[in-house]
Design goal:
about 250 residues; mainly alpha; two-stranded antiparallel sheet; 12 helices
Length: about 250
């Protein structure tokens, strides 16, 4: 276990410099390729006292913890980080950036043996900006879990730790009505989360696939609410009244 810390401005910049050095010649739509030595250099920043500050709230996390999904990341951080703290907040850029550096290897998809894909810095360096904050691989699952609960988090971030999931995260910011109806979220979980892998099924967020999550979250609730009181219905009752386009997602 290690005491949770936060990067100061020098720490954030050091992390950014490492990323930019690798990505300077790479298109924003393509990954840079890095090795284990690069990953070690990022993790080492977390233990440099000149670049970090310990939180006043005493809490620890396991630096060896293995995550299979971003949902697991969010749940673990929710459980470990204090519920009442003026340091565990969205504008603590250094905290979320430090945690992503600590678990950096898990936030990179393996390309081949000992090589990994490094994408744009906003996945790893937290920016508390309207268009960027939801893309951070660590903060987003934690914040959805803490503010919306387990079921909503399971639906939106049941993807591999390194998966950006922009479609899901952008969807989350636009579906206030959907997340306020627990039974509707439960129906979405039954339709789109594979019970074996605990990850979203392939094509869940595709705009072109019939009965996908985008349609369920953004259009179906408004349509059904004209006839039904969805908030008073159970998960099974909601599943029963969904259009036939959702049939292929069942089971």
């Amino acid at each position: 276990m290690i005491k949770v810390s936060s990067f100061n401005s020098l720490g954030i910049q050091a992390f950014r410099d490492l990323i930019n050095e690798k990505r300077i010649t790479v298109s924003h739509s393509a990954p840079a390729i890095v090795d284990e030595e690069f990953i070690e250099s990022v993790v080492a920043l977390c233990f440099d006292e000149n670049l970090t500050t310990s939180l006043r709230d005493k809490c620890e996390i396991d630096e060896t913890k293995i995550f299979h999904t971003r949902f697991e990341v969010g749940k673990y951080l929710h459980d470990q980080l204090p519920k009442e703290s003026n340091e565990i907040v969205p504008d603590n850029d250094g905290l979320w950036t430090w945690i992503s550096a600590l678990y950096f290897e898990q936030l990179l998809e393996s390309k081949s043996r000992n090589t990994f894909k490094l994408w744009s810095e906003y996945r790893y360096i937290f920016l508390n900006e309207l268009r960027r904050f939801y893309r951070h691989l660590v903060f987003t699952p934690f914040w959805i879990y803490r503010t919306r609960g387990e079921d909503v988090a399971r639906f939106f971030v049941s993807v591999a730790p390194f998966t950006g999931g922009d479609a899901v995260e952008q969807l989350y910011s636009r579906v206030e009505y959907f997340v306020q109806i627990p039974s509707l979220v439960e129906a979405a979980l039954e339709l789109y989360v594979d019970p074996k892998t605990q990850k979203l099924k392939a094509g869940t967020t595709s705009k072109n696939k019939p009965g996908g999550a985008i349609r369920l979250a953004m259009q179906i609730p408004q349509q059904l609410s004209m006839t039904y009181d969805l908030s008073s219905m159970s998960k099974d009752e909601i599943l029963d009244i969904l259009p036939h386009e959702f049939d292929e997602w069942r089971g």
